[in-house]
Every structure is written in C-alpha cells, then in structure tokens.
C-alpha cells in the first residue's frame, strides 16, 4: 500500500512545484539566504572564527581587519562570531513564533468559520482583545507573568500576532465554504474533515504563507526590542536585536558596528519573503501555466 | 413507487440580522424561495424544472439532495424520507444521488488535477479496492464522457468550458448513481458544446437507466432532454405535466406566455411584432397577494387578487394552479 | 456609397503575448447599411467581441491593428487621433451597450444623475442639469420604465437587471448615434425580460434609424432581431447572409453544423455535434481554420485560406466547396 496512486500523485505534484521553483530566481535568492542562516545557526561553533563571548578591552570598537573581519564591539568581542551565534535565537524566535501563531490561528479561524454561533463570537472576541492592546504592553504584561526566557518570548510573540492569522483564515474559509467545488464535495458525501483538509486549507494556505513570510522579520525585531528591555535574551547571549541595541550607543564613534546586525535582519526578511512568494506562486496551478 | 417524491416542500430564507435592523423593529425579512412544492419523478424519467431567475428552481434542486435543510415538507427517495436519514444513511444516499452544478469550472477544485477530481467520490465512499488500478477506473470514466487519458493530469484551468463540464459529469458518474440533479448543466456553454453535452447526457441516461432532475431556463433544451416539465413561478409550481402536453396544450397563463414567446430558428418572426408579457418577476420578499402571477396575467379577475390557486388536476397527469380551470 | 455607415476592409488585429504577436482577427470585410441590424454570431473565442472593441477603439494596449482599415461614414477612423475619436465619434456617433448591466452603472450615483450627465455633455455643457431633467424623465419613459419621476431618484441597486439594461439603452440612444454596438446585452436576463428588451431595441432602431452591430452567441435571439447575419469562426468571418437565407440555406459547413447542433423545440431528431474544439486565438491551423473539424474538408482546405466570395445576391461564404 505504500507506493499507492496517492503517493505517485504526491510525487508528481511536488516534482512539479520543484520544477517551477527551479526556474524562479526568487526561490534561489530566498532559499540561499535561508540556508545560510540555518547553517550558521546549526554549525555556529564550527564556523565562527572566534569565541563570541571572549572580551578584549584593548581591542574595543575596532573597524574591520584581517583578524576581526567585521570589527569588534564595545567589549572587544568579534562581531562576525557574535553575528553567527545570534542566528540561533533569530531562527528559533522567527520559526517558533510563526509556527505557533499559524497553528493556533488556523485552528481558531477554522472553528470560528465552521462552527459559527456563540463559539465564533467568543473566538472573535479573543482576537479583538489581543489586538486591542498595544502589542508591547501585552507582551510586557505576559512576560512579567511567565518570566523572561527565550521560550516565553517565542510563545508570547506567537500568541500576540496570532489574531492576524485567525482573522485571515476565518475570512477566507467563509468565502471558500461557499465555493461551488465545496458544495460539489458535499453532494458527493464528503465529511467536514475532508472538506477542510482537502478543499479549504490548500486553497487558503497561500494567504497564510505570504503573511508568515512577512511576519518572520518582524518577529526578529520584536525579539530585539524585548532583549533591549532586558526581557528577552540575557547577556552575554547575543541576538541580532541585542547587538543592534548595543551598537546604537556607539553610532558616532563606530558607525559600522550597527550596520552588521541591521544587514543580517534585512537579509533574513528579504530571504523569507521572497521564498514565501516563490512558493506561493509554485503552489498555485493557475499562476504557472507553462511547465 | 416513484424514485423521488417531494411533498409540500417549503424553504424560507429568514434574515433578521443586524442590530440596526432589530432596532428598526421591522420583523425578520422572509424570502419564500420555495413555497409548497410537490412532485414525483419516476425511475428513468427526466423532470425538467423551468422558470425565470428567482423562481426557486435551484433551491428545489439543492433541497432534493439535502444540501440545504427545508423549512417544511418531506423528500422521499425510494419511499424513504431523506430528511430523517442518519449519517450512514445519508452517505449511502449521496452515493446514489449526484449533482452536476451550473458553473462547469468553479465546481472543480482549482488545486486538484482531473484524476483527483474524478476519483474523489471513490475515495469518499471507500470504493478503491486496489489503489493501483485507480487510474484505469479514472480513464474509463473519462472515456465514458469522451475525454482521452491525457486529460487526467490537467488542472481545471487548463480545460475548456466544455471539457470541464465533461469532467464534472465523469465525477457524477463515478459512483454509478441512479439519480442525478442537473442544475443548468449547459448554461454558459457554446452551442456546439451544449449539443454534445445534451447528447452525452441522453446517451448516459439510456445506458445506465439514470433519472434526472433537470433545472433549466432553456426551453428548446427542455424539449430535447425531458419527458416531464414543471413550470415554476415565484417559488410555486404553476403547471406540471409531460413535455408534449406543455408544448402543445399548456393551460396556465404564465406557461402560455412563456411558451408562446418561444420561437425557433425555423420560424419566421421578429421581436418587433413579437408577443411579450409585460412586467418582471416580483420580489419574493413581498409577493403579490392571491395568485402571484395576477399582476402580469391578461386573464386575471377578482378572485385571482385574493385567493391563491391550488395545483389541481386539469386532466389526467396534467396539473395546473389557476382559477380559470377550477 | 453614401448609405454605408460602416465599412471594414481586410482588417487584421493582433495581440501581443510574451513578445510575439498573435493574430486574433484576420481578413475581416464587413459593411453595414444605415438602419440595419447586423448580427455577429460565433462561439466564444471566435473574436466577435474583439471586433466590436476594435470598431470602438477600445482594444487594450497589448493589441494592435495589423492591417486594413475601418471607414465610418466614409472617414477612416483608424487614423484618427484618440482625442478626436473620443470627441467626435465615441459616445456621439457610436455607442455601446455591454453584456452585464450590473457593472455598467456606477452604484454610488442615482440613476437619474447618471442620465443627466450624459445629457449635459451632449448639450456641450450649455444647458443646466435642472433644465435637462424633464428630458431625462422623458427618456426613461420612452424605454418603458414605469413611474419615471420616482425612479429618477433611485440608485442602480434598486433597479432589476432588465430595468438597468433599459437605462443603458436610454443612455446609448441619447446622443442619437448612427451606430450602436451591442455586445450580448441580454445574456444575463430572463427569457421574458429578454424579449421585452429586444422588442424595445427593435422599436428604437425603427425610430432613430440607427444601425446596430449585435454581437451574440445565441442564434435563437438573432433570428428574430437581425436583418443580416455574419458568422464568425476562429477570427474570421465565414459567412454573411440575410437572416432568413442563412437559416434556410446555410452555405458554409460551420454554419450548417452549428444549426444542426442547436436544440429547437420543433426538432425531435438527435442533435449533431461538431467534433474537436475551437482552436485557441492566435493558434489557428494552416489553411481554412475550420478544416480539422469539417466533414467535407479536402486537400485544398489544408493549404490555402478561403476568402469570402459572393455565392448569391447578398450571400457571401468563405469555403472552397463553392469553387468545385
């Protein structure tokens, strides 16, 4: 039963998606950036040229040199190594936060659209409450309850942006539900789970994908902000946000220092959103006619 | 015993949403989409339901398959009420009764290839014994509707309207149903494709002893495909009989108007001297009292404005709802 | 030839697609007398709507006229500047009624206001809108809208589809155009309403002596409306004839096949079908465009393009069978 027709079909469809993405420069661009970040995150100790925590007060705020390719920071630590190590929290926060919010958002959005009634009102009320607070206040309150740590930052960020996904999923589900092909599936005797997983979710996934590509970057920014307030990563652990905040004080004496974490964040954002865009196009049969 | 019997079907859509609306205290808006409709379909018959937009013909079609729950009334399939079916019974019914939706392309999931679309009913009803032979079954079904094997790998947007329509028919046939509800299956198709679809449906009916409930507004097509016709106006059946009778000896003024305006390409006529019925179909939110056709009817008299006519037998097998005849 | 309102010579239209030009209309030759209703029929993809748009110069930027000329009242309108065309011809001498009346009226303005706008521009902004109101109500009455004074102040969503199409007709006839291009104006309407609108259209044509190019896919409608019919297939006109003549003695195999496909309440024999399918625009076969689906096709059909030839008085057909 393993190599069934379903399996062949899946193979064919994914081969098609890969074939389309192979022709798309966006897929390469985004994919290579994501690979770069993932590799730095996983193999940080192997790649980093120096110990990111080793301070050297005699070499404070130096510019790029052969020894320190990107220069040193206020405590004389190697910026490149710190940047590489900082990919770890970036990946954890952005992926973790997005996955949490996408999963909760899809579940709540589908429930609201599908069950309706009181449940829908309650779910929408929860969304509204979360969105009504300025996110920073909400995060601060929640963090002070749970206590600062990387995990709590991930969970809280995920919950905070979740209503975006919930609302999108609910709205799209409501409109997909009325589509003719859903009615056709119903008249064939398909049960709700088949309709949701086979017909509705694949058709609304594109919107979620694009949204999450954009949110990845803002997750990193949020983490930076929280770390600055001392609620995210605790020193001496580094993250791009922490580095950004540190360099900020020295913008006049060592202007290059702020450039590196900013570039890293920008590149990540670009990588994620271009890859998401490319994937969205490849997954939609209507958008890629010629294969 | 009739295959399908609809007894006093009523479907009202009620809208009382919105705070402002409740404050205005107008009471709910009630749209009587289908109001007391009864008919029978014998096995291997084709009952065509004709009428203008808003007459409730699509609502009847969907109610018959229990895609919407009726407000009142009963639908019997092989003598059993489908409204009381439990989950298993309903699933068995869905295996027996299929639907072909109006829009050929939007009734196909845009992310499915034809193979998935046509095999979906087989998956739903666990009719796949040997998964590897699935493709053979799909090809067989495609062949039945006149599509070659290569179509099985295409997406709906790569099909023409006529091909998409055939895929929809292949899907409806996959479970070897007895009863198919066809909701304007030829609307929006070009003439040459429409005739091909009509011929196909007729051929399939003979080959597989199918029974059709055929929703349409094209009277020429109805003449060709059906042997019984029900004419609907504002949620009610005004006349129902067999096709020959309705084309030659219709009695209800609305049917008369509808069919007298019918001209074919072989007639010598033009729109300038053409007999037309004045006015448009009134809103079903606020239908006229009495007979709902009376404001447009040239024979209307006092009683028509007050009393609603009942559907009564004019002659054997010929029912009409008009005061002129009882 | 003062009587010819419209004269199209050897027109060819191309669309740009991925840097290549695809020919969607080819060898179009058509004449329209004043006060005549010419129906342009064909299946989807035959190019009939493109032809209508070409005459009104409403083609998108990606399209161009590759060959030929269009003479309107003896004037070559292909060479007119866009500004002159808009000022002198479009909306004045030529008007259009489109398929979907739901989208043709602006939903945020009252119907009356929209009619007044047309009248206001027609009067070259000389008369005030107040003076024009009586005229506007008169027009609404003429197109058969009951209680026009009251209806004047209503919004488009309060009008039914049939009434909207009446308003569109009213607006088209305000400037008393010489040519009206009607692109399937009744497709979205009910049977009885369709008959009403076409009855109205016939009467308006009689009154205003307007020529109409009626684009449709519905032969059953055209038979009761038009004086002449031009049948299009895959970007070409394959047959032109008087309406009755075309239905009684179709010459081109495509027309013949189409008529045999059409379900008709008087017909009980089995419907015929045309094998194969309409070729994609711009991807036409070599030779006669219909030859792959034609049961009479022979060697010559696969090699040469047939041209419209006169086969009887006022009956033209593009088929090599007539040469044999």
TrEMBL record, chain A:
Subcellular location: Cell membrane
Keyword annotations: Cell membrane, Membrane, Transmembrane, Transmembrane helix, Transport
Membrane topology (UniProt): Multi-pass membrane protein
GO CC field: plasma membrane
GO biological process terms held by the UniProt record: transmembrane transport
Transmembrane regions listed in the UniProt entry: 27-48, 83-104, 111-130, 136-161, 204-233, 253-276
Domain ABC transmembrane type-1: 87-276
Coiled coil: none
Matching PANTHER family: D,D-DIPEPTIDE TRANSPORT SYSTEM PERMEASE PROTEIN DDPC-RELATED (PTHR43386:SF1), OLIGOPEPTIDE TRANSPORT SYSTEM PERMEASE PROTEIN APPC (PTHR43386)
Family recorded in the similarity comment: Belongs to the binding-protein-dependent transport system permease family.
Protein name: Peptide/nickel transport system permease protein
Organism of derivation: Halanaerobium congolense
């Amino acid at each position: 039963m393993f190599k069934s027709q379903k399996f062949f079909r899946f193979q064919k469809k994914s081969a098609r998606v890969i074939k389309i993405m192979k022709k798309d420069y966006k897929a390469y661009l985004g994919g290579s950036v994501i690979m770069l970040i993932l590799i730095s995150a996983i193999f940080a100790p192997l790649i980093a040229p120096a110990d990111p925590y080793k301070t050297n007060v005699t070499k404070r705020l130096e510019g790029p040199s052969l020894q320190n390719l990107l220069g040193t920071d206020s405590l004389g630590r190697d910026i490149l190594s710190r940047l590489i190590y900082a990919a770890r929290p970036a990946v954890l926060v952005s992926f973790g936060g997005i996955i949490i919010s996408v999963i909760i958002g899809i579940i709540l959005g589908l429930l609201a659209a599908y069950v309706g009634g009181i449940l829908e009102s309650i779910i929408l009320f929860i969304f509204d409450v979360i969105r009504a607070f300025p996110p920073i206040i909400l995060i601060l309150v929640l963090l002070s309850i749970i206590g600062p740590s990387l995990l709590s930052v991930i969970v809280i960020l995920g919950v905070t942006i979740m209503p975006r996904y919930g609302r999108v999923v609910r709205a799209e589900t409501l409109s997909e539900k009325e589509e003719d092909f859903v009615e056709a599936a119903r008249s064939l005797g398909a049960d709700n789970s088949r309709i949701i997983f086979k017909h509705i979710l694949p058709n609304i996934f594109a919107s979620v994908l694009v949204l999450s590509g954009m949110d990845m970057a803002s997750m990193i920014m949020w983490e930076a902000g929280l770390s600055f307030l001392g609620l995210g990563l605790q020193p001496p652990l580094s993250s791009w946000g922490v580095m950004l905040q540190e360099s900020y004080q020295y913008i006049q004496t060592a202007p290059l220092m702020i450039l590196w974490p900013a570039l890293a964040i920008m590149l990540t954002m670009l990588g994620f959103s271009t890859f998401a865009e490319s994937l969205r196009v490849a997954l939609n049969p209507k958008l890629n006619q010629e294969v | 015993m009739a295959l399908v019997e609809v007894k006093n079907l009523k479907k009202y859509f009620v809208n009382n949403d919105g705070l402002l609306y409740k404050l205005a205290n107008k009471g709910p808006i009630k749209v009587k989409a289908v109001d007391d409709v009864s008919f029978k379909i014998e096995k291997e018959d084709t009952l065509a339901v004709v009428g203008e937009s808003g007459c409730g013909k699509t609502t009847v079609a969907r109610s018959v398959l229990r895609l919407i729950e009726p407000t009142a009334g009963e639908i019997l399939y092989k003598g059993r009420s489908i409204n009381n079916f439990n989950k298993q019974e309903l699933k068995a019914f869905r295996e027996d009764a299929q639907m072909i939706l109006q829009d050929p392309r939007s009734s196909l999931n845009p992310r499915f290839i034809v193979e998935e679309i046509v095999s979906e009913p087989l998956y739903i009803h666990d009719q796949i014994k040997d998964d590897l032979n699935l493709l053979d079954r799909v090809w067989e079904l495609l062949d039945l509707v006149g599509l070659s094997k290569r179509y099985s790998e295409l997406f709906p947007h790569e099909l023409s309207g006529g091909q998409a329509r055939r895929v929809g028919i292949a899907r409806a046939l996959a479970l070897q149903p007895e009863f198919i509800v066809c909701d304007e299956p030829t609307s929006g198709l070009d003439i040459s494709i429409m005739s091909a679809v009509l011929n196909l449906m007729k051929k399939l009916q003979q080959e597989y002893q199918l029974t059709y409930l055929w929703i349409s507004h094209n009277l020429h097509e109805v003449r060709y495909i059906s042997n019984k016709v029900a004419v609907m106006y504002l949620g009610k059946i005004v006349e129902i009989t067999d096709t020959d009778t309705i084309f030659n000896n219709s009695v209800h003024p609305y049917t008369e108007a509808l069919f007298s305006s019918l001209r074919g390409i072989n007639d010598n006529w033009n729109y300038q001297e053409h007999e037309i019925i004045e006015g448009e179909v009134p809103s079903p939110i606020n239908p006229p009292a009495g007979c709902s056709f009376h404001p447009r009817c040239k024979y209307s008299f006092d009683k028509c404005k007050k009393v609603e006519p009942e559907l009564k037998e004019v002659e054997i097998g010929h029912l009409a709802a008009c005061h002129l005849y009882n | 030839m003062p009587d010819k309102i419209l004269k199209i010579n050897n027109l060819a239209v191309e669309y740009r697609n991925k840097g290549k030009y695809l020919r969607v209309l080819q060898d179009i030759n058509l004449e329209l007398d004043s006060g005549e209703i010419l129906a342009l029929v064909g299946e989807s993809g035959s190019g009939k709507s493109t032809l209508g748009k070409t005459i009104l110069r409403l083609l998108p930027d990606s399209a161009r006229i590759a060959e030929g000329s269009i003479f309107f009242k003896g004037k070559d309108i292909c060479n007119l500047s866009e500004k002159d065309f808009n000022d002198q011809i479009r909306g004045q001498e030529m008007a259009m009624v489109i398929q979907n009346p739901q989208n043709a009226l602006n939903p945020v303005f009252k119907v009356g206001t929209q009619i007044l706008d047309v009248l206001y521009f027609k009067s070259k902004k000389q008369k005030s809108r107040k003076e024009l109101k009586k005229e506007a109500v008169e027009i609404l009455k003429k197109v058969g809208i009951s209680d026009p004074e009251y209806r004047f102040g209503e919004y488009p969503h309060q009008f039914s589809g049939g009434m909207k199409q009446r308003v569109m007709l009213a607006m088209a006839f305000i400037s008393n155009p010489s040519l009206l291009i009607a692109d399937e104006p009744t497709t979205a309407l009910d049977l009885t309403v369709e008959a009403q609108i076409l009855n109205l259209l016939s009467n308006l044509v009689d009154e205003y002596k307007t020529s109409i190019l009626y684009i449709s896919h519905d032969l059953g409608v055209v038979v009761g409306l038009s004086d002449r019919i031009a049948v299009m297939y895959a970007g070409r006109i394959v047959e032109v004839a008087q309406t009755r003549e075309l239905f009684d003695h179709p010459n081109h195999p495509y027309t013949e096949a189409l008529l045999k496909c059409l379900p008709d309440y008087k017909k009980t024999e089995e419907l015929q079908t045309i094998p194969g399918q309409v070729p994609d625009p711009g991807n036409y076969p070599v030779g006669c465009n219909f030859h792959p689906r034609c049961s009479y096709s022979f060697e010559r059909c696969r090699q040469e393009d047939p041209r419209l030839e006169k086969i009887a008085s006022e009956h033209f057909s593009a088929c090599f069978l007539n040469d044999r």
